[in-house]
Amino acid sequence: MQDLQPLLRPRSIAVIGASTQPEKVGGMPIRLLGELGYAGRVFPVNPGADTVQGLRAFPTVEAIGEPVDLAIVAVPAPAAPDVMAQLGRAGTRAAVVFTSGFAEVANGSGLQHALATQAKTHGVQLLGPNCLGAMNLGERMFATFSPIPLTGVPPVGGVGLVSQSGAFGAYAFALAREAGLGLSHWVTTGNEAGLQVADVIEWLAHDPQTQVILAYIEGARDGMRLRQALAAARAAGKPVVIAKVGTTAAGASAAQSHTASLAGEDAVYQAVFDEYGVHRAHTLEAFFRLGYTLARGRRPARWHSPTGMAADAVAPVAIVTVSGGVGIMMADSAESQGLPLPPMPDAAAAALREAVPFASTSNPIDVTGQVVAQPEVLADALAGVARSGAYGSVAAFLAGGGNAPRVWSLLEQTVDDLANDPQAAPLMIAGVISDDKRAWLEARGCLVFREPAHTIEAVAALAKAAAMTESAQSPAAPAQLPSVPDLPADAKALSEADAMALLLQAGVPVAPHGLARDADEAVRVAESIGYPVVVKLCSPDILHKSDVGGVVLNLSDADAVRAAFERVRRAAGTARFDGALVARMVRGWGEIMVGVRRDPVFGLVALAGIGGTAVEIFRQMSFGLAPVSRERARAMLTQSRAAALCAGHRGHPPLDLDAVADVIVNVSRAADAIGERLDTLEINPFIVSADGLVAADAVITLR
Predict the structure, then answer these.
(1) 523 and 383 housed in the same domain
(2) Per-residue DSSP letters for 490-524?
């Protein structure tokens, strides 16, 4: 792990290219550090000035006469590599490079490489270039040229914010200030010639001042570093919220031109986020709302995961509302989030009906507008469901009733009592609440939202966070990988016969088959496995055999097999011909595709979904990091809708979904066992039959 102490907790700061004009890029950091209370020493470096903004200036960093922890670099791009070498010779430990004009522009990659090389050679921790800098709110350390802190800073709190984009980071800083969301640190990484977002996330995962991590990313160059950072946050029980952009072709292109990041395939990023329990935000509003929820909200009293995966955890929720219509909206949101809505327990329901005979005691629990006249009805209903043991969380819609003096008086007492009851389900409120009352509620772990559906989304996020914390305490055992045969050093692909043999050895069910090198042998194989059969060209040079006429189906006698053998031999043309694969025709009622491919960012990624010849048309695929667990494999089948083929329909028997998932697990483990040589492993189709999944074709390419 990178130690970011010199960057984020420096005892001394040098500003290279310091300006006497506070509004300039080289002047703003000095102004911020001076006006906002930084306690360390600041050394302006400017060979043309004796003083800068009231501070003694130095002609060079060496002239300071002592090593500094952090240097802020605001010099033209061509000068930056030499400045980095000077910093290294002077013993500087970290540097923030504001300057742009590097890899984000044409012909700038060489200059960025030179900058990074000098930093690495001299042991200087590099943030940037093309970044807006970093802040430590608790220590009043503002290593940025953004003037936005001058108009106010957010409170010091437990949320760490890191962004690849400086402009996003500045806007996020302003929104955090507006929302009163307490920040611990704020970091923008820019072009990431040195430190990456992943390094900051990992450091924040170990930082005692940070409890929740918010990150904006456009892409990742080193997927394993990002996975390691997310794993560290999960192990520390710290939720991570990520806004990942570049989900479309246009967005990905913009991201690459913005900070020279490769956005990568969004579905693969989502698989990574699912693996590590990341909360994904698709809008700025959701980004901060999730940060608020996870930083201030109490975890549900009860939760469970229908799939066994922490990312799919849900909590039963009681919806208590003064409006039947809004209650229905909240119930719709709960169903879309997969949150159970158990009915109101009998005792609490009887008490509510006695007080308000026309109240609804199902779930949503409609206490009606009568609570204005009988506020004790609301208080008793909230306390009754929160203490019933039937719910993980309670979501209440009060409209504007919370501000009514009689309602507030009883609500205040109820919230205080529940906050001090560790067995009670936590309460969150939607409605119009005055600022002072909102602050009082939040101080007791009662979240407040204007939008009623946001209470339900908060319950879902907090259930997931609780499950991720618990799962981190009992990590899964490493997967047991199968043994695979040695692969030819110069091979670019395996023949289908070799691919099938490897999969069979790894515990993957394949269609009965044999390799024939002449027509007579083909007949012997067919008669040993039973008709009807399929005859397929076997050549490592031709992966898509049907494209060249190398597949002949539904052969029912010896003459047909002989004729098919000659046909596929001719189809090979000048390619290497290893013979013909003769396999039993497998009958079923559906086709599933399972595969593993090497993602350029994250390594081996498993995929599963609806298969067959139309796989690239429908693209009903789900992804997981290989090797996958049984729980992940089940989720992939469900998300891609392939599980529906196994559920039993039109007279077909249902299949054991765990057994089907185990096939995907074994495929992913076989791919992982091949290791760095593997490029792609594809089985399309797996035939869905009464005997389970049977591989009818396999392609393995190597690198």
Answers:
(1) no
(2) T-SEE-HHHHHHHHHHTT--B--EEEESSHHHHHH
For the domain that residue 57 is a member of, what is the CATH number? Answer: 3.40.50.720
User: Tell me, what CATH number does 228's domain have?
Assistant: 3.40.50.261
Mean pLDDT of 194-223: 96
Q: Is the pLDDT of residue 252 over 60?
A: no
Condensed to tens digits (0 to 9), the pLDDT of residues 281-331 reads 999 999 999 999 999 999 999 999 988 888 899 999 999 999 999 999 999
d(CA 664, CA 655): 14
Strands 678-689 and 692-695: antiparallel
Residue 372, both tokens: 């204005």
Residue 478 counted as domain residue: no
What Cα–Cα distance (Å) separates residue 134 from each residue in 144, 163, 188, 190, 200?
A: 6, 10, 6, 11, 11
Give Cβ neighbours of residue 499 (< 8 Å, ≥ 6 apart): 681, 698, 699, 700
Query: pTM, whole model, 2 decimals?
Result: 0.90
Predicted confidence band of residue 354 (pLDDT cuts 50, 70, 90): confident
At 262, is the pLDDT very low, low, confident or very high (cuts 50, 70, 90)? Answer: very low
Question: Do residue 415 and residue 538 come from a single domain?
Answer: no
* 252/536: higher pLDDT: 536
Asked if the peptide bond before residue 129 counts as cis, ω within 30 degrees of 0, the response is yes
CATH number of the domain that residue 674 is part of: 3.30.470.20
Give which of 176, 272, 144 is closest to 219, Cα–Cα: 272
Instruction: Return d(Cα 573, Cα 564) in angstroms, integer.
Output: 15
Structure-block tokens of residue 255 = 């991201």
- pLDDT tens sequence across 643-665: 988 888 777 888 989 999 999 99
Return the residue matching tokens 């060496």: 62
**CA 205 – CA 194 distance, rounded (Å):** 19
Same domain, yes or no: 148 and 32? yes
Domain boundary among 472, 499, 524: 472
Q: Is residue 124 domain-shared with residue 230, that is, in the same domain?
A: no
Which helix (H) or strand (E) covers residue 204, if one does?
helix 197-206
Final residue in a domain of this structure, among 296, 312, 342: 296
> Under 8 Å CB-to-CB from 689, ≥6 apart: which residues?
586, 587, 588, 589
d(CA 288, CA 420): 27
Does one domain contain both 540 and 641?
no
pLDDT at 435 over 70: yes
pLDDT of residue 190: 96
**185 and 134, same domain (yes or no):** no
Beta bridge partners of 583: 513, 534
Query: Which segment, 198-202, 272-276, 349-353, 592-596, is predicted with the most confidence on average?
Result: 198-202
Q: Which domain holds residue 421?
A: 299-472
Number of domains into which the chain is organized: 5
State which H helix or E strand residue 694 sits in.
Answer: strand 692-695
